[in-house]
Design goal:
It is built from one helix and 31 strands. The chain has one helix at residues 181-188; strands at residues 10-13, 22-25, 34-40, 43-48, 52-54, 60-62, 66-70, 75-77, 84-94, 97-107, 110-111, 115-118, 128-129, 135-146, 149-159, 162-163, 167-170, 175-177, 206-213, 216-222, 225-226, 229-230, 234-238, 241-244, 249-259, 267-279, 285-287, 292-297, 308-309, 328-335, 338-342. The strands form nine sheets. Strands 9, 10, 11, 12 and 13 form a five-stranded antiparallel beta sheet that branches. The radius of gyration is 21 Å and the shape is globular.
Length: 344
Amino acid sequence: MNDEAAHYIVSWENSHASSRPSFQGLAKGLDGAVRVMAVHKALLVLGGVFTRAYSNDSQPIHSGSLIAWNLSSNEWSTIGRTTCEGTVTGIVSSQGTLYIVGQFKQIQGVEVNNIAAHSGEISAPSGWRGFGAGISGRTVMALAVTGPEIFVGGNIVRAGDQKVNNIARWDGTRWERITDEDCEQMCAQGDGDSHCLERNCEVDGFVSSIVTWNRHIFVAGNFRTAGGHPVTGIAHYFSGRWSGVSGGLEGSVYDLKIHSPLDHQPHCIYVAGQIKSVVDKLGAKVPVYSNVAKTCFNDTSIITEGWEAVDSVDSSGLRPSQKQVGAVRKLLFPTPQDWTQSEA
């Protein structure tokens, strides 16, 4: 960009002095795709399927699938002076600790099994730790952290010594299932419902994203039941119960966030991805051309108001009703003008 080669990662600045944004690479970039990023201690931490980063003089830095870009010195550095061999698919920075999930077995000689955390100085040759026996499954994708609790999702089958169905919680000392208590009680009574055959009182498919709000958990992905209840692509968990969210949606969700546009009520749940349609407050199916939708609620009730498509205008000036936009991978909320990362 800006007539320079950019290898998998760029930064951009939209200056008021110029009508065109300025793009530039981070040094000489990476040798593979970036899947996730987060700001941590004045560092931009990147995870993905790359193995090396390249300095300004094109010298390779063996990074594994995790690397940090120093926002002050504009140079690459590894975290804890070690590499993560595998794939990183989720990153969260919380209270001075960096959490990652993905497909990796060890970090710094410690067996962590797909989830790890780093605390302390980034440059110190230590600081990595695991959580019990870690997580097992085909894909670990979703990650959320609230205080001592960690929530993970994906196609996962075991967390620590617990057999789980696609979602699990670390309570600060051990792994737990996130299960529907009514469903468990019915299964224990042997009522013969189909979801009890494999005791799936959790989520019956892939979990792509998790967000928490005041002890409430919202998850999105490719699933049709949660806690034994019919849902479509998004579900809500609170006080031992799973439920749907405003009639659900049709399509693939890549990101899920809760945002208060004016820093007060109502709070809104935003979803992004390849969203085909949502159900509005009248129960009608509404097409979503922008691939972004929202539903809102207030502090006194999690009962939402029905889904609506979030409008956007692309560089050509065409609205989504006139032109289908590409899949939206990430939601950001720094300003109303800069909040999506999309694919053409």
